[in-house]
Amino acid sequence: MTVTDTGASALHADAVRTLTRWRPADQDQEQLRLDYLDHLAEQPEGLFRSCLPAHITASAAVVDPAAERVLLTLHPKVGRWLQMGGHCEPGDRDLASAALREAVEESGIPDLTLLAVDGRPTPAKLDRHQVRCTGKDRPENTHLDVQYIALAPAGAQALISEESLDLRWFDYDGLPELTDDSVRDLVARARRLTS
């Protein structure tokens, strides 16, 4: 991947535009937004797995608002229940489509849509966390995750992918024990934004 790649440049420009437009409600999220923008200013290839020690990722909490439930995946590397998501790819035209692609691939639900504000898919929150996405024997690196809300049709049936140990719907008030605070916060935001 080189910075001259048109798709990579367009994705980078979209990430900058998306994060510049987005206005979080709290100071912690605002600081993360500014940190992400600094990362993108310093790293023309900062959206791809090859950018170390940190790179932007995209994810989405898949929710069925009618049933007040969220779909979570038991991640094989992390051993926790997480929202759908992962690395941006050169073919992704923007951050929102990267998050939607990951959500569809990992949920098996083809007709998801991202929650939008003024007709434009908008992040729900940002989360910075350490992972070993380059292998167990490699140093940790940082995911700068841009998190969206993906709306599933009422009664949607999920289909587990090879990227998951398990895939289940959980009531908003019945999240599993092996869920971290970041996921709980994302689900709470999804609940507020879709009710």
Automatic annotation (TrEMBL):
It comes from Streptomyces kaniharaensis. CDD domains: NUDIX_Hydrolase. It comes from the Bacteria. The lineage of its organism: Bacteria, Bacillati, Actinomycetota, Actinomycetes, Kitasatosporales. It holds the Pfam family NUDIX. This is NUDIX domain-containing protein. InterPro entries: NUDIX_hydrolase-like_dom_sf, NUDIX_hydrolase_dom. Residues 53-192 form the Nudix hydrolase domain.
